[in-house]
Amino acid sequence: MNAAAVPMRIALVGNPNCGKTALFNRLTGNRQKVANYAGVTVERKEGRFVAPSGRVLQLLDLPGAYSFDAASPDEAITRDICEGRYPGEATPDLIVCVADATNLRLHLRFVLEVKRLGRPMVLALNMMDAARKRGIGIDIAALESALRMPVVETIAVQRGGAKALIERLDMLAEQVPVVARVGAPEDAMLFSSPNSDGFAPSGAPTADGEMDLHAQVRALLSGAVTMPSATSIVDDALDRIVLHPVAGLAILGVVMFLIFQAVFSWATPLQDALTAGVTAAGAWVGDLLAPMPLLRSLVNDGVFAGLGAVLAFLPQILILFLFILALEESGYLPRAAFLLDRLMFAAGLTGRSFIPLLSSFACAIPGIMATRSIADPRDRLTTILVAPLMTCSARLPVYTLLIAAFIPRHDVFGLFNLQGVVLFTLYFAGIASALAVAYVIKRMRRDKSEHALLMELPSYRLPHPLNIAIGLWDRAKIFLRRVGGIILALTVLLWFLSSFPAPPVDATLPPIDYSFAGRIGHWMTHLFAPIGFNWQICIALIPGLAAREVAVSSLATVYAMSVADDAATTQLGAVIASQWSLATALSLLAWYVFAPQCMSTLALIRRETNSWRNVWITAGYLFGLAYLASLATYQIAKALT
Amino acid sequence: MRLSELKKGASAVVSEVEEAHAADPIARRLRELGFVNGEPVRVVACGPVGGDPVLVQIGFTRFALRRSEAARVRLVNGTAT
Question: How far is A367 from chain B (nearest CA, A)?
Fold first, then answer.
């Protein structure tokens, strides 16, 4: 058959925490395509790699699943694709089932379930390095003959750790028919024989059927695996501290606080460098365009001023994701969920909401997407509704600007500086209000049947640089695409609104007062004057609705236009510090704790919940909270200062 | 005795998972995760508030279960190891 023309399609399946994604990264490197499955929003990761023979193999990374008896949309997709009945997805030619060699008691059960499908398959025993370290002995030959399928060892986090798997796949590509045929189990007989050797037929999720599967796993383990102890000494020791009722919570608090201090202090030199670079580029291009004042204004005041101000926040977003990805890889995140479950459950959430909500600190979009791992639809909806209250990194530009301009760099207790403390307070306000809103939702809900936790706490692992680098690269791409697309378009639109119509010849006020933007802003102040917003802020709020970080670039544009000096673009902080009262600044900070989220978040909520009602509820309650919080902040601050 | 009554650090053997109501999805998932007759379990840790959830070692895996979930797991009496 012609392997060069039609690459063999391989699906990667396995339990959650089996190292499947690390293996996928190891095999495909950065030759990955991340998208969604048609119609639903479960992430679809596909990649290719070239085997030593020059054969191209196509790899699909399916969502992790404990069982084909799906308890979440992710598991349903994995089941449907493996069974070859997912619309729009070709049946995989070969299934690679990944199992954690240190966790075979659980993972072999799913291997057996996949085997029942009767499709060509290979078992990859991953994390063999960890298994050897723990003295776990696995008789590969015995396992192969008992399972009647090829079994290979892999170490996904090691260079060359997938060599045996690649060679095996290359070999199998010779034998497996490449054009997938649904319901042709005779092709599969070569590798495993379904339902003919006394196995219970699939689709029997009864207690007896389960007992049968588990009995088979026990038989496999006793025949092929020797295990000196059930647990890892390292895990036991770490869990004793990390899950300790007092020490564990203290560690969690310190970790969270360190992240925010790091985001605020490490990023500064990088930000300064980026800002300087963009300013220099703007000046250079501006000089070239000197003969054309209108175009020069567009490029300098629209494109470079706006884009530059936003681009400068890339370092912070990357540092935040660096921490989130590292915590995720290390296995710490589920521990944090364990510690917080009771608290979050009381508030109407679940410990599992912790991971989506933590991701929402970077951006509500990956956060809301991560809610797919929450099996209970009610818990999932509540998490989605409160996710925008987590302070996303798009709000950081606004916070950073205002804090740097209005809050002095005092030392507090000789340890932290006041700016960091204020930032921490803003984050905390978001968290507290999210818990409060979730509690209200819980009270209002009619269906009060039980919610499930059932969460696995995986072994601790050292985060691997390759996986973190690929994760960071994905985030950077998403952020830059937003900067390049929506934000650029909005910045230019705003430049247009603030440049036209031109002021009359006998103008006495700054030109922007005569423009469309000036008029809209002045009109909006009727609504926003009680919370202390001037018309410049009002203008910036409009594009800020489309994407929150644009508010900063909009302010830069508005102020660059309304003062004569071009240099003001780069010194926005100094300008607002001299023009705004402290009460206004604090009110704007409070506004952004709740601020109605960006359009892309609302669009995602529509897509994830399939309901416009949820979109209106979210936008409405956020606007109401934002207005009330700002009103209280402004009036109190004004009375005190 | 039930898994929810097992003290921290104590071990026992699973007897069966009971359905809290007909077609209980939580009970089914518990069985899938390995809570079946004859399987040894141990309570490794308890949550900081009210000892909820409990962390249960089963096989080579650790699962966090809420007390209401752990209450579905009946243990074989008198087999503390």
Answer: 22
* Average pLDDT of the residues in A122-131: 93
Whether B73 has its CB under 8 Å from any CB of chain A: the answer is no
A77/A93 Cα distance (integer angstroms): 17
Residues of B with Cβ-Cβ distance to A239 under 8 angstroms = 44-45, 55, 62
Measure CB to CB from residue A239 to each of B20, B45, B48 and give the nearest one: B45
In percent, the amount of chain A with pLDDT more than 90 equals 24
Q: Which residues pair with A372 in a beta bridge?
A: none
| CA nearest neighbour of A316 among A251, A391, A253 | A391
C-alpha distances out from residue A94 to A29, A174, A305, Å: 20, 12, 52
CA A494, CA A536: separation in Å to the nearest integer? 12
SS (H, E, C) B49-64: ECCEEEEEEECCEEEE
CA distance A215 to A225: 15
Separation in Å, CA A623 to CA A276, A598, A627: 36, 12, 6
Q: Which value does ipTM take for this structure? A: 0.93
Q: Residue A636: what pLDDT? A: 92
User: How many Cβ atoms from other residues are within 10 Å of residue A400's Cβ?
Assistant: 22
The answer to whether residue B81 scores a pLDDT higher than 60 is no
Residues in chain A with CB shorter than 8 Å from the CB of B34 are 105-106, 109, 214
Using CA atoms, how far residue A530 sits from A313, A540, A549, A614, in Å, is 31, 17, 24, 29
The reply to whether residue B29 touches residue A452, judged by beta carbons under 8 angstroms, is: yes
Please report the beta strands in chain B, taking only residues with DSSP state E, as ranges in sequence order. 11-17, 40-49, 52-58, 61-65, 73-75
- Is A69 in the B-facing interface, judged by CB distances under 8 Å? yes
Q: Could you tell me if B50 and A342 are in contact, meaning their C-beta atoms sit under 8 angstroms apart?
A: yes
Tens of pLDDT, residue by residue over A246-293, are 999 999 989 888 876 777 677 778 877 887 888 788 888 888 887 887
CA distance B77 to chain A (A): 20
Q: Within an 8 Å CB–CB cutoff, is residue A341 touching chain B? A: yes
CB–CB of A170/A52 below 8 Å? Answer: yes
A456·B30 Cβ contact <8 A: no
Sign of CA dihedral A583, A584, A586, A587: positive
Q: How many other C-beta atoms can be found within 10 angstroms of the C-beta atom of residue A410?
A: 10
Closest-CA residue of chain B to A245: B48
A499 has a pLDDT exceeding 60: yes
Chain B: give the shortest CA distance to residue A60, in Å.
25
What would the mean pLDDT of A12-25 be, rounded to a whole number? 90
Label residue A402 by pLDDT band (50, 70, 90).
confident
Best mutation target, B60, B67, B68, to test chain A (most A CBs within 10 A): B60
Task: Taking residues A2-22, report their average pLDDT.
Answer: 81
- Residue B28, min C-alpha distance to chain A (Å): 8
Residues of A in contact with B32 (CB under 8 A): 66-67, 69, 109, 205, 210
CB within 8 Å: A453 and B69: yes
- Residue-wise pLDDT tens digits, A175-234: 776 554 444 333 333 333 333 333 333 444 566 778 888 899 999 999 999 887 767 788
In the DSSP assignment, the letter for residue A469 is H
Alpha-carbon span A417 to A260, nearest angstrom: 12
Q: Which comes out higher in pLDDT, residue A62 or A201? A: A62
Output the pLDDT for position A472.
Answer: 85
pLDDT for the residue numbered A177: 67
Distance CA A259, CA A225 (A): 41
Q: Do A66 and B33 touch (CB under 8 A)?
A: yes
Tokens representing residue A388 in the block: 């925008």
The CA-atom distances, in angstroms, between A483 and each of A275, A281, A460, A547, A592 are 15, 17, 36, 9, 20
